[in-house]
Amino acid sequence: MKDYIVRGMSMDGFVKAVGIRSTELVRRGAQIQKTAPNATAAFGRALTAGSIMGNMQKTEDGSLTLQIRGGGPIGTITVVSDPVGNVRGCVTEPRVPLVEKYPGKLDVGATVGTNGTLTVIRDLQMKEPFVGSVPLVSGEIADDVTAYFAQSEQIPTACALGVLVDRDCTVKTAGGYLLQLLPGAPEETISALERGIQAAGAVTPMLEQGMTPEDILGQVMGTLGVVFLETTEVCYKCYCTRERVERALISLGRKELEEIAGEDREFPVECQFCDTVYRFTPEDVRGLLAKL
User: Fold this and answer.
1) pLDDT at 247 over 90
2) What crossing angle do the helices spanning 37-55 and 23-33 adopt, rounded to 10°?
3) Beta-bridge partner residues of 7
4) How do residues 82-121 score in pLDDT, each as one tens digit?
5) pLDDT category, 292, cuts 50, 70, 90?
6) Which of 126, 20, 5, 18 is CA-nearest to residue 63?
7) What stretch of H or E contains 86?
8) Which residue, of 128, 149, 160, 259, has the fewest CB within 10 Å?
9) Domains in the chain: ranges and CATH
C-alpha cells in the first residue's frame, strides 16, 4: 500500500485535520541511513512530521526543512519536504544504542535528548526563508512539533506520531495526525476535541490494529465528525543530481580539487539523503577545474 496524506475539516469548520500513512517512506529512510531501532523510531517520526508540515505549505516551489538537535546520541536529525509532502532526510549517528522505557517500548526521548531545539525553515521562494526555533519539550518529536506551532506560529495544535519497529528491526507501520484549531473556535469545540483525543489514546496501537488515516482522524475527532477534503500520495524522494554534486565539488575550491585530481583515482561522492553514489574520474575532476 502506498503512503498518503489525507486532509479534512471538522463538521463545524473550526478544526483542520491531517492524517498520514508513512510506513513505506519511513522504511526507505531507515534503509538508506542504516538506522538501529531507536534511531529508526526517532528518524521515522521526524520524516512523518516533515511530510505533514511540508504538505501544509502554500508555496508551489517552496520547501520545508525540519532540524532536531537535542543533545542525545542520535545527534542532529534533518528532514526536508517538498510542497507535496515527499521527504528525504539524514541523521548524524544512525547506529545508536538500544534504549527502552520498558520492554518493547523504545525510548525516543532519550535517543533525541531534550537539551536543544526544534527548528523549522520554510523556503517560500522569497529573499529570505522563514526560520522558527523552539526549545525541545520531550524529544519525543510529536510534543515538540505541538510546542513549535503553539509558540512560533501561535496555532493551538495536537500532534501524534507513531513508528512501530518490528522484532527483526524493520518498520512494521508508521503514521500519525495533526489537528489545528482555527480562530474563533468555541469552547465546546475545544472540549469535544480534547475528549476525542483522550478517548482515542496513543496513535501507535491504532496503527498496529491496521487503522487507516481516515479511521484515526474519525476516532480522534470524536463527536465533532470529520469531512475529508483531499488525499495526496507521498513518498521518500531525493532531488540530488550529478549537476548538483558537480556544483558542490566546484565550491570546494581549486586547491582541494587539484588534490583530488592528483590522487589519480576514482573519487566517489555519496548523497547524504539517498544511497546514490556519483563517481568522478580524474578526468572529470580536471574538467571541473577547467570550469573554475
Assistant:
1) yes
2) 130
3) 18, 230
4) 999 999 999 999 999 999 888 888 999 999 999 999 999 9
5) confident
6) 126
7) none
8) 128
9) 4-233 (3.55.30.10), 242-291 (3.90.1280.10)
Among residues 201, 184, 199, 196, which one has the least CA distance to residue 225? 196
Buried b (16+ CB within 10 A) or exposed e, 131-152: eeebebbebbbbbbbbbbbeeb
Q: Which three cell numbers stand for residue 85?
A: 509532502
Asked whether the predicted pLDDT for residue 60 surpasses 80, the reply is: no
User: What is the rounded distance in angstroms from the CA atom of residue 194 to the CA atom of residue 159?
Assistant: 12
Alpha carbon of 246 to those of 32, 50, 76, 292: distances in Å? 22, 28, 26, 11
Contact 139, 108 (CB under 8 A): yes
What's the whole-number average pLDDT of the chain?
94
Distance, in Å, from the CA atom of 74 to the CA atom of 92, rounded to the nearest integer, reads 6
Helices (H), the chain: 23-33, 37-55, 108-112, 142-152, 187-200, 203-208, 213-221, 242-250, 254-262, 282-291
Can you read off the three cell numbers belonging to residue 158?
495536537
Characterize 187-197 residue by residue with b for buried, 16 or more Cβ atoms within 10 angstroms of its Cβ, and e for exposed.
eebeebbeebb
**CB-hemisphere CA count at 13 Å for 286?**
9
Q: CA–CA separation, 187 vs 189, rounded Å?
A: 5
| Mean pLDDT confidence for 1-10 | 96
Flag whether the pTM goes above 0.85: yes
Task: Map grid coordinates 483525543 to a residue.
Answer: 197
